[in-house]
Amino acid sequence: MNTxxxxxxxxxQSRRSVRLYDSNAPFDADAVDRSLDRALLAPNSSNxxxxxxxxxxxxxxxxxxxxxxxxxxxxTTANELLVVVTRKDKWKAHAAFILEESMKxxxxxxxxxxxxxxxxxxxxxxxxxxxxxxxxxSIFKKILFSGxxxxxxxxxxxxxTDMRVVVHKSAALAAQTFMLSMKAEGYDTCPxxxxxxxxxxxxLNLPFAxxxxxxxxxxxxxxxxxxxxxxRLPKQEVVFEV
Length: 242
Ligand SMILES: Cc1cc2nc3c(=O)[nH]c(=O)nc-3n(C[C@H](O)[C@H](O)[C@H](O)COP(=O)(O)O)c2cc1C
Known about the structure:
alpha+beta; NADH Oxidase; 2 domains; 4-stranded antiparallel β-sheet; 10 helices; globular; binds flavin mononucleotide
């Protein structure tokens, strides 16, 4: 194992979901900032970055949000709470941004790769992300892609619900990058889906289309902060060689 792998092994092995934090332990808030910078580098679908991160720092705000996290210890005792939000509704603006920025790096004569990229953001992304409030587009796309799929491989995840999964996947990768980074910085975290999303959205003043992917609490574990030994299914039950 090389040195980087050994360091990464240590970070992964020592990261645990912590439910009780030590409020008296020193806390370097800049570690959260650095970890957010790293989280923003997480791989994400079509590089659309349909995510937002709300850092809740002040004790009064943490206290209020912790109530909406169902008053879990993992939230009430945390130094900070990070709300990871998906913004599927921003696909058009982000696609335009990515395309515009990428085009600045294009060579004077547009080649096949550049043309493919323009088609991707101008045609494929709208096909995947456009939806209507009644779900008619989703039904139409499902039928269309299933039909084409009889003859050749096609993407099957094309409905509005499928695209919700897509954005949550990317946001979760960012959340994991954040948690591993916090561990590397010497701090602990707990990802949470136990929260009242309606109240959390209201608290953050988020629009209807925004969704909460998860809330990550941050701090330093107390001695009893980890509830039990780490438990995983046997590897042979979940890992298969094909
Ligand atoms: C999406 C997600 C949601 C979770 N929600 C909660 C939660 O609301 N409260 C909690 O105490 N732990 C929560 N957890 C933590 C899991 O219980 C924990 O990751 C799992 O038991 C494995 O333990 P480990 O993280 O220490 O390895 C959540 C984890 C994930 C990934």
